[in-house]
Amino acid sequence: MARIGVFICHCGSNIAGTVDIPRVVAEAQKLPMVVHAEDNEYTCSEVGQRSLREAIQEHRLNRVVIGACSPRMHENTFRNTVASAGLNPYLLEMANLREHASWVHGDQREAATVKAIDLIRAAVAKVARAQPLFARQIGVTKRALVIGGGIAGIQCALDIANAGFEVVLVERTPSIGGRMAQLDKTFPTLDCSACILTPKMVEVGQHPRIRLLTYAEVKEVRGFVGNFEADILQKARHVDHDKCLGCGICWQKCPARAPSEFDMGVGQRTAIYIPFAQAVPGKPVIDREHCRYQQYLEWQRAGAEGKKPPECRICEKLCPVGAIDWEQRDEMITEEFGAIVVATGYKTFDHSVYGEYGGGRYPDVITSLQLERLMSASGPTLGEVTRPSDGQPPKTVVFISCVGSRDDSVGRPYCSKVCCMYLAKQSIMLKEHDPEVQSYIFYIDIRAGGKNYEEFVRRAQEEAGTVYIRGRVSKTYPEKGKLIVWGEDSLMGRPVQIAADLVVLATGIEPSEGAIELAQTLHISYDVHSFLVEAHPKLRPVETMTDGVFLAGTAMGPMDIPDSVAQGSAAAAKVCGLLSKDTLALEPMVANVNAVKCVGCLLCQQVCPFKAIDTETLRDGRIVVRINEGLCKGCGLCVSACRPGAMNLRGFSNEQLLAQVKALTR
Amino acid sequence: MSASSYAYYPGCALQGTAREYDVSTRQVCRRLDIELQELKEWACCGASSAHSLDRRLAVALPARELAIAEATGLPLVVACAMCYSRLRFAAHELEDEAKLREISSLIERECKNTTQVWHLLQVLDARDIPIARPLRGLRVACYYGCLLVRPTDITHFDDEDNPQVMDGLMHRAGAETVEWAFKTECCGAGMPFARRDIVLKLSHRILAQARGAGADCLAVACPMCHSNLDMQQLNMKSVFKDDFQIPVLYFTQLLGLALGFSPKELHINKHFVDAMPLLRGKGLA
Ligand SMILES: Cc1cc2nc3c(=O)[nH]c(=O)nc-3n(C[C@H](O)[C@H](O)[C@H](O)COP(=O)(O)OP(=O)(O)OC[C@H]3O[C@@H](n4cnc5c(N)ncnc54)[C@H](O)[C@@H]3O)c2cc1C
Prior knowledge:
The complex is a heterodimer of chains A (666) and B (285).
Chain A: E1 4-9, H1 21-29, E2 34-40, H2 46-58, E3 63-68, H3 71-84, E4 92-96, H4 98-102, H5 109-128, E5 136-139, E6 143-147, H6 151-162, E7 166-170, E8 185-186, E9 191-192, H7 193-206, E10 210-213, E11 216-224, E12 227-234, H8 249-253, E13 257-259, E14 268-270, E15 272-273, E16 285-286, H9 292-301, H10 314-318, E17 331-337, E18 339-342, E19 346-348, E20 365-367, H11 368-375, E21 396-403, H12 419-433, E22 438-443, H13 453-462, E23 467-470, E24 473-479, E25 482-489, E26 494-500, E27 502-507, E28 509-511, H14 515-522, E29 549-551, H15 561-579, E30 583-586, E31 591-593, H16 603-607, E32 613-617, E33 623-627, H17 637-641, E34 647-649, H18 654-664
Parallel strand pairs in A: 1-2, 1-3, 3-4, 6-7, 6-18, 7-10, 18-29, 20-27, 21-22, 21-27, 22-23
Antiparallel strand pairs in A: 5-30, 8-9, 11-12, 12-17, 13-14, 15-16, 19-28, 24-25, 25-26, 31-34, 32-33
Chain B: E1 5-9, H1 19-31, E2 35-38, H2 50-53, H3 55-72, E3 76-78, H4 81-93, H5 97-107, E4 117-119, H6 120-125, E5 139-143, H7 152-155, H8 165-172, E6 176-177, H9 196-212, E7 217-220, H10 223-231, H11 233-240, E8 248-250, H12 251-259, H13 276-281
Parallel strand pairs in B: 1-2, 1-3, 3-4, 5-6, 5-7, 7-8
The structure holds flavin-adenine dinucleotide (FAD).
């Protein structure tokens, strides 16, 4: 027999100011199975909680209803309180008298009071039919998967590994480093990007607890928090990295050329290559598309018609340790993990929709990332900034900001956040490279929030003499070896025309290729621009709505290196918190299925947003569903979809909900 | 667009200053078996002035032409870039139901806004063109002007900075086209009387760029552009001391030549800057 206690909270004047509390208490006392009712000034306070505990013991209560605020606010508090009094924490029901009654009916005391009584009656009806629930404990695989080896992923992997846990870091390209490795200097301190990054890259490469998988991609992820299983595709490198010494003879002698991805197309690489000198691992891969021997094999496969291409195989002949392996195939690696961090970073906006800037049409219109490569001492021009068209050093440089940022007409309404700062940086650096350079920056607003950022922009203006022109550019065209840039100076209210040697487009930041597919395999959300979505924009910035999956860096939105690093560390802290547990308690308020009633129609599987429903075949051959309690979030969609009524949600059983509705509609 | 019968709206300019555009259009279409049915009782579409004076009229006038064309059941083709712009603009405005009702009652005609509006360039682009006399050695700067391409989401024409349709047609006619950046820069349009200084400056810039790019002549698709670029060369001579003497032809005239018509049949002799010496020099006349 249920013995129910009802506790009505005043919440100061939040509830008591509107609702007639004594009347609610009196009405509660009349409800079936209610053996005790009382009110408290603040039930959540120490005093209130003590009174709750004492009442449970004194009146031998085995069910509790608390009429107070939203369960989102204090359900956990009260669950702990009743548990400490010896009650199963799930034999508690909250009626939200604040958000649902007093706050929304502020000037109607009578109506609010009647509603409060109704809510209490419904809660009593529901809790009377509640069953004790017990959280299941599951083990935790003490290994983390970090996807993406940019600065965010690197920092995250190092922090987790240094805390004592194993990490697998998966990077899609042949080396870790990400975009930061492509940069020359970094704002606002102008320290050399490679100098501060490469020590971290080396540490990753040598760390005993980090397994680095480059030239690899995560294809599928199964399981749930603490117990993930991932299929990782290791692409064939055609180089045996166990044998390879990284001596470099192969890439020095390879005759095939391809545009370098790392140099953003302003430089070339060979077909067997490491993307840049400090690459980690410092061992090459063979790009099948451009390798002559692969082309030769392709020609043979296609029937050996037409001119015979050279067989080449120079790398194989020169390799002192016989590391070239033509037989190597793509390979699928399956590993188990307790936690996953997504740090897949960004790519830059394709500027071709802005025909007026002439990018793609005129060789001396380049992107800011290309300029970074031209400025870098390890870049294709060894740090001599020259014009792609004629190799001459540019003297007049025009920068155009917000190319694919803050522009609704190209579907990019957001600010890319780093461009204002790197434009200032690049104009300062150009001046340092060559004092004769004059830079002009067309801008909409200068966004320089951050420590020493505004001062840095000042430095560009005052020391480097960069001219900032507020306005957009309407046209760029070549004339007599120059690029004529037409624009508007909206502060002076007049058109301007600049004869430039080089035009640099500050292309905006957008998520990396394949971000959506990855998000889908991980069951995490992404926004309209495909940026990954955090669980809460303020309070849970590196978590996702899927337990055990975390985010770091520009995969979730534009940010600079300091922020990416901070996020990498934050995600690592979350991961370590999770991996430091030996077991995890699973939320017991999940769906459960009555296999006797289940007809195996699998409609529930289709509606489940968390992929939490598996099937199993019973001994009699019937196929029925089974709930994966690690993935189930207790949303209840399957319950409403189930036609034979085989599904039930623990803590929200059909019986409970119907009783609740009946009580309300009495 | 592969129909071979079209309702044809010549527009006022093609009856007056741009007769050669009308004549050459009809010649080319006849040769390509494109039947042009001139709209009955067509009137001015309001181009160049209505939209700056009365917004309702600016829609009502072209809407009337759209309604007349709709009654024929044929797609509508226009050669004049201004008319094209106004007709497309009206069709865009009439997508709004309330507007459609208002305008229909104003023009006292039923209009469902179903007429497809094409520019002649688009229609010809989709056809086979049997070339009789390739324009070998002729370097053409294709000049599209602003009205065909802008605003893109209303005119649905081609790339607004570097359109290619006319270039493609000229290539098929055997001519070379020059790569230049002023294909869609404004020529000053309807301002030659009010602000001749502006028109001269803008048109001069276009011609200078075309010449700098190595063009022998310009091909245009707009009567207003034509008059600014052709007729104003005389004035440019006195203001800028620049005597271009660069012929400006309608693209239909050049296409007509390639189809085998004589310059006279295409009214090529009617321009201010005489194209004949150039054509003779290239062996095309
Ligand atoms: C021109 C320019 C100049 C800049 N200058 C500065 C500066 O001076 N100072 C500053 O603070 N910031 C600067 N930034 C910003 C800086 O580049 C970023 O803040 C930083 O690189 C973000 O790091 P990340 O790790 O989030 O992403 P990324 O550097 O993009 O790294 C992501 C990594 O994940 C990999 N990856 C992607 N998808 C997958 C996948 N599916 N599977 C496996 N791996 C994957 C990528 O290959 C890459 O290695 C600049 C940006 C630009 C464009």
